Amino acid sequence: MMKKYIMIILTSIIIINLNFCSNENITINKIIKITGKDKVDGKYIIVPQTGCGGCISEIESFIINHYSEYNIIYTFIKSKKEIIIFYKINGVNTENFYFDTNNYLFNEKDENSVYPLQFEILDNRIKNKTYIK
């Protein structure tokens, strides 16, 4: 009887871990697709162009001051041109900016999709995910 419970617990742990890893890999695979890079280690900020207005303004100010430290991915885009002009006017080099034109990283069913997301990828693992609310 005890073996049965141990097997159930171990199976549950394995399934939970597999599910977590597969969701993380899906996100990493999407970032690889968007950036065109083979290796995507580094710091990232994902910004929905449409969403929480105050949150987006706050992260845009942060990006202006720290753009060289991050890979910036815009999703749920209304106008790519508008984004580039905004940053160029503010003296930002947009070489490390990427555009999720297919909305791979935006999920209408996830209420957090309207908020900017900051995270880091190390050894193909997502670390320190923080929504800017």
Task: Walk me through the structure.
Helices cover 44% and strands 22% of the residues. With 133 residues, the protein is of the alpha/beta class. The chain has a 5-stranded mixed beta sheet, sandwiched between helices. Strand 4 and strand 5 form a beta hairpin. The chain starts with a helix and ends with a strand. Mean pLDDT is 82; it is low at 12-22.
What is this structure's SSE topology?
Elements: H1 2-35, E1 42-48, H2 53-66, E2 71-75, H3 80-89, E3 97-100, E4 117-122, E5 125-131
Parallel strand pairs: 1-2, 2-3
Antiparallel strand pairs: 1-4, 4-5
Separate helix tally: 3
Evaluate the radius of gyration. Answer: 18 Å
**Taking all residues together, what is the mean pLDDT?**
82
What's the N-to-C terminus distance? Answer: 48 Å
The amount of beta strand, in percent, is 15-25%
Task: List its traits.
133 residues, five-stranded mixed beta sheet, alpha/beta, 3 helices
Give a short overview.
This protein has about 130 residues and is of the alpha/beta class.
